[in-house]
Recover the amino acids of this structure.
C-alpha cells in the first residue's frame, strides 16, 4: 500500500506530538519511505518536525533531509550545531552534502568542515568549487569504477567494497591505470561473465557519452534525455573520471527549468515559491509591472497625439483595448513557439527567413479571419466606418505582431540572450504601442481626419 | 568524442547521397549512436532518409526509428509496406511498438498485425487497449521477473534467458506463484549473493512503489520523481505484474507536459510543433484570439457607456491601454504562481483563504507602489486630476486582478478543471474588462462628470 498524506493523518500526528507520544511516530511514520516522511515534516512546524526527526535513525535522517522542501530544510539546518550538521552531511551523497553546505554562510561552512572526517571534507570542498549550474556542481563522487586490466573476479570483490558507499549502481565505469575513462560495463554483463574473463574483453567502449566538469547543466539534461541515460560519467579536462550524475537530479533540473520558463513567460522575474515572503514576491513581480507601466505610458503618448481626433469621434476609443490586447496575444503566441523550438533544439537548421515567412503567412491568415469577424461585429454594434477602421488595423496589427513575435526571440538568441525573457510582458508591451499607432493612423485614413 | 551535427556535415552527406555513395554513410554515419543517426535523418528529405536508413542493420533501424521526430517518423512509416512495418515493430520495445502501431489507421493496424509473430502481436494488441495517458499505455512488457522461492542460481539462469529481450535492466521484480508482485531485487544484491541463497531471503519487500495500469501518466511521473525511481512496476487490479515503465519515457512525458503548460499559458490551445502546417497552427491559435476579441468587444461596450465623458475629456482615453494591460499582467502573475504550486503539489494543505489573503496583501503593496509612480508621471505629463484618476484606478485594478488571478485557478481546481487553462488570455481578458469599468468609474468620480 502506498502512503497518502491526508489532513486527518496530519491532525492526529500533531495531537500525538503535543502529547509527547513517541509510539505513534514509531508505528506510523518511521517505517514510511523517506520521501513520505519528508512530505509529512514539510507540513509540520519546527518543534513538531524536530520531534519526528529525532526518532529517525541517522541514515534515514540524511535521506529525509534531502527530500524536504528547500525552505523547510534551511530552517531545520539552522537549528543544528556544527557537529550535528557534520554528522548529517556524512550520511548523504556527496552532491547533496555539497548542496547543503553551499547554502550555509562561509563561517558556518568552516565550522562544519572542521567537524568532519578529513576524506569526506576534502571531497566536499572540491565539489563546492564548481559552479552549481555545471556538471561539476551536479555530480556526486560516489560511483563504481574498475580497472580495464582486472578479471571479473577481482572486479566483483572491488565492487562489493565500493558498493557499500554507492546507493544506486546503474553502470560500472571502466578506467585505465591513470583513471582515465575508457568505457562502461553493465552489471548484467558482469553477472553472466566467467570469473577469469578480463574486463577489457567485456566492456563497451563505443558511443560512450560523458561530460566534463564545466559542461552546463542544461546540456547534461539534453544529453541524458537524447541518449536515454540513467547516469552519465563526469570527467575532468584530462579525461580523468571524477564523478557521475544520476537521472533523478536531472529530472529535478528539468522540472526547475520548466518552472522558471513558465514563470518568466508569466512575468515573474525571479524564481519564487508561493510561500516566500511578501517582499520577495513583490520584488519578483515589480520589474515586469514597471515594463508594463512604461509601455502604458508610451501608449498614452501615442494616443495623446490623436487627442483631437478622439474628441471628434469618441467611438474610436472604444476599440483601443481590443487592438492592444490582440497585438499582445498574437505576439506572445508567435514568440512562445519560437522560444520553445529554440529550447528543444528542434528545427535548428531551418533559417530565420523560413520561419519568419511562415509566421507572416500565419499572421495574414489569422489576421484575415479575425479582421473579417470584427468587421461584421463592429458594423453591427457601431458603424461601417468604424468596422473598417477596426478590422483593417486588427489585420495589420496581427500581421506585425506575428512577425515581431518571431523575429525578436530569434534575434535575441543570435546574440546569445536567453529568448525566454522576450516573451510575456515585453512583447505584449511593444505590440501594444505599435498596435495603437496603427489603429489611430488607420482611423485618420478611414475617417479622413 | 561526442558527435555534433553541423551544417557542413549535412551538406556533405546530402552530396554523397546524391552521388549514390554508400561508403560515406558506412564510414561516418552507421557507427554513430542511434539518437545521433536519428538527428541526422530528421534533417534529410524522405528519399535521402531512406538511403541512409537502408544501410542500417535491422536492430539499429528500430532504435533509430524511435528516436526520430514524430512527423518524420510518420512520413517514414507511411512509405513502408505492412510486412516491413511488422519487422520493424518486432525489433522494438513493446511500448514503442504499440505507440507506432497506435498511430496507424485501423485497417493498416490489422494488416501489420497479420504479418507479425503471434506472441508479439498478442502483447501489442493488449497494450493498444490501454489509454495512452495511463500507466498501461506507457508501460513495456519487457522486464525481468523471478519467483520468490527460487535460489540465486536458478535466478541467474532465468535472468540470462530473459535479459536477452530486456535492453536495460534496472531492477528485478519478485513475484509469487500467481505472478503477484511481492517486491524488488537489485542486481547488486544478486551479484554478491551465494548461489544457494533463496530470493525470499534476499529481496526487499517494504516501501515497494508500484502503479496499476489505470494510474494516470502524470501521477506516475510524480511518483517516480518523488521516490527517485528509474523504473516502476505496473500491476493489474489483481496486483499481477504486467509491465514496467522506465524513467526515459517519464522524462519525455515531463518535458511534454511542461511544453503543453507553457503553450497553454501562451495562448496556444493545441500542442503543435513549429513545423506543423499553416492550417493546424492557425487552428491552435484562433480559440484564444477569439476569446481575446470577445473580451475586446466587451471592453468596447464598457467604454461605450462613457462616450459622453470621453467627448468631454479625451485625455481619459490615453490611459486605457495602461490600465487594461496592467490588470492583465498582474492577473497572469498571480495565477501563474497558483497554477504552478497546484501542479507541483506544494502547499496542498494551506487553505484558499490563506492564499487569497496573501495575494491580496501583495496586490495592495504592488498597487501602492505602481499607483504612486504613475501618479507622479501622469501629473507631470497631463494633469493632477488625471494623475489621481489613473493612480487610484491602477491601485484598485492591481488589487482586484491579484485576487481574481488567485481565486479563479483555485476555484477551477476545486471543480476538477485543469487550472492551467485559466492563465494567459482568459484572465487577461477578464481583467481588461473589469479594469476598464473601474477606470472610467473612477474618472467620473474624480472629474465629477
Amino acid at each position: 500500500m502506498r502512503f497518502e498524506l491526508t489532513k486527518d493523518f496530519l491532525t492526529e500526528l500533531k495531537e500525538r506530538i503535543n502529547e509527547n507520544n513517541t509510539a505513534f511516530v514509531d508505528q506510523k511514520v518511521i517505517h514510511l519511505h523517506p520521501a513520505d516522511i519528508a512530505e509529512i515534516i514539510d507540513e509540520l512546524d519546527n518543534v513538531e518536525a524536530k520531534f519526528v526527526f529525532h526518532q529517525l535513525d541517522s541514515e534515514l535522517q540524511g535521506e529525509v533531509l534531502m527530500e524536504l522542501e528547500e525552505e523547510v530544510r534551511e530552517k531545520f539546518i539552522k537549528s543544528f550545531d556544527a557537529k550535528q550538521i557534520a554528522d548529517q552531511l556524512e550520511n548523504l551523497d556527496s552532491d547533496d552534502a555539497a548542496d547543503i553546505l553551499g547554502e550555509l554562510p562561509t563561517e558556518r561552512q568552516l565550522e562544519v568542515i572542521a567537524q568532519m572526517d578529513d576524506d569526506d571534507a576534502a571531497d566536499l570542498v572540491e565539489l563546492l568549487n564548481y559552479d552549481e549550474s555545471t556538471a561539476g556542481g551536479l555530480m556526486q563522487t560516489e560511483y563504481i569504477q574498475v580497472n580495464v586490466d582486472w578479471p571479473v573476479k577481482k572486479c566483483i570483490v572491488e565492487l562489493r567494497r565500493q558498493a557499500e558507499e554507492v546507493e544506486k549502481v546503474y553502470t560500472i565505469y571502466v578506467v585505465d591505470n591513470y583513471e582515465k575513462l575508457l568505457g562502461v560495463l553493465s552489471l548484467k554483463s558482469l553477472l553472466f561473465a566467467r570469473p577469469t574473463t578480463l574486463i577489457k574483453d567485456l566492456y563497451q567502449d563505443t558511443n560512450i557519452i560523458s561530460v566534463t566538469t564545466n559542461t552546463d547543466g542544461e546540456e547534461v539534461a539534453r544529453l541524458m534525455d537524447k541518449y536515454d541515460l540513467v547516469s552519465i560519467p563526469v570527467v575532468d579536462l584530462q579525461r580523468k573520471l571524477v564523478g557521475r550524475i544520476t537521472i533523478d537530479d536531472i529530472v529535478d533540473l528539468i522540472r526547475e527549468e520548466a518552472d522558471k520558463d513558465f514563470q518568466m513567460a508569466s512575468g515573474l522575474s525571479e524564481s519564487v515559491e508561493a510561500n516566500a515572503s511578501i517582499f520577495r514576491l513583490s520584488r519578483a513581480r515589480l520589474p515586469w509591472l514597471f515594463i508594463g507601466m512604461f509601455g502604458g505610458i508610451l501608449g498614452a503618448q501615442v494616443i495623446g497625439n490623436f487627442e483631437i481626433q478622439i474628441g471628434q469621434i469618441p467611438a474610436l476609443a472604444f476599440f483601443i483595448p481590443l487592438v492592444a490586447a490582440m497585438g499582445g496575444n498574437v505576439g506572445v503566441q508567435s514568440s512562445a513557439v519560437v522560444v520553445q523550438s529554440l529550447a528543444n533544439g528542434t528545427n535548428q537548421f531551418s533559417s530565420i527567413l523560413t520561419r519568419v515567412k511562415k509566421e507572416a503567412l500565419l499572421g495574414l491568415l489569422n489576421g484575415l479571419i479575425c479582421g473579417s469577424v470584427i468587421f461584421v461585429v463592429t458594423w453591427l454594434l457601431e458603424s461601417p466606418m468604424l468596422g473598417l477602421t477596426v478590422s483593417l488595423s486588427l489585420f495589420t496589427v496581427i500581421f506585425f505582431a506575428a512577425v515581431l513575435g518571431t523575429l525578436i526571440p530569434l534575434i535575441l538568441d543570435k546574440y546569445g540572450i536567453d529568448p525566454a525573457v522576450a516573451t510575456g510582458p515585453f512583447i505584449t508591451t511593444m505590440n501594444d504601442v505599435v498596435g495603437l499607432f496603427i489603429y489611430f493612423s488607420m482611423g485618420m485614413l478611414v475617417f479622413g481626419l
Notes: The beta strands of chain B are 145-147, 171-175, 181-186, 211-212, 231-235, 241-246.
